Amino acid sequence: MTHIHGDGFKVAIIRSKRRKTLALAVANGEVSVRMPARMAVHHAERFIQQKTAWIQQKLAAHPATKKRLFTEGESLLFLGQQVYLSIIPGSTANQVKMTKQSLLVDLKNKAPSQAVILKHITDWYQQQATQHLIARCRALSEVTGLLPKSIIVKTYKARWGSCTRVGDIQFNWKLIMAPKAVIDYVIIHELCHIKQHNHSAAFWQLVENFCPHYKVHRAWLKNNGHQLSLSVH
Fold first, then answer.
1. Against a cut of 0.85, is the pTM above it?
2. How far apart are CA 111 and CA 90, in angstroms?
3. Distance in angstroms (rounded) separating the CA atoms of residues 108 and 196
4. Whole-Å CA distances, 178 to 68, 74, 106, 217, 225
5. Helix, strand, or coil here: 181?
6. Largest alpha-carbon pair distance within the chain?
7. pLDDT tens, 171-197?
């Protein structure tokens, strides 16, 4: 048996010799259960039945994502707002620019591939992210009095930002897709690590001093962070 059928979903079974307990995971619209190699399946079936409501809630909150096609009219996120692609092949120059609700992609290539379109859009997003994140970090460092040693915008796979013990701060460029208030929360979060290099009660109190509604923004990022990507929607 490789799957267990639940109430409106199926669960992939992943056995491991190292595992001693059962553990569920929900990601990209798929459910899996990790279990000890020699454990009888009926234990996992009972476990899944007990966790059905939780699984259904997670699936509703994090449905399966689809790969973007990068075609005319397709939507992207920018500063928390939906913008719509307008692709103009055969232009005199390669450039990407924003209008009120459209992202105009001018390309010299008369028949650009998805990879070419993605590269130009990604380059533009990274440029915008670098400008916005560095500017906001400098502004908020003045407000908080927490001064970073350096600010770098880069690509992260599984985090939104980091701060070293000496105050070097780094941000994930994909944050530029989040609402401005969420971006500011992440910046304040990392700035506060300059003074409190931990996640203690004192750290969160410091964050709250500068960002009173940080819990709302943190929850938004937890629930919607998977959408901050150019490769899926």
1. no
2. 8
3. 50
4. 18, 18, 25, 10, 8
5. helix
6. 65
7. 999 999 999 999 999 999 999 999 999
